[in-house]
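Task card 7
Instruction: Convert sequence to structure tokens.
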Amino acid sequence: MEEQAHAENRNYAIAPLSTDFNDDGYPDLIYSNLNGPLKIFMSQGGENKFLKVRFQKNAKNPGAIVSVTEAGKTVTDFLYSGEGLSSDQSGTLIFGLGSIKTGIDHLTINYLSGKADSVRNVTAHSVIEIK
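Output:
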């Protein structure tokens, strides 16, 4: 997978950080290496659409399950907290949407508490802020 993404790191690294550091909608990687320099892989962007779901750091959000449904297809991701050694992922989940022509049918967030939120008619290339 690293070869395909052109993100090969031949050093011994602590868990990589992955988020959209340059805010272009595509995930970037930073490796904190134990036997070499810090290694950064910035995405080159592209033409595909994306959706970002940005969570505020608080007690209710970790473990949230986010599902994005578009044209009958559903993609799901999870919000982890404390992932990695001496690092943590950002509170932003990035969904690649390919070349969709329409908006997203709906976005559903299921929390560990059992509560759920739903957002309809979401546009691509947008950021949904969750408190």
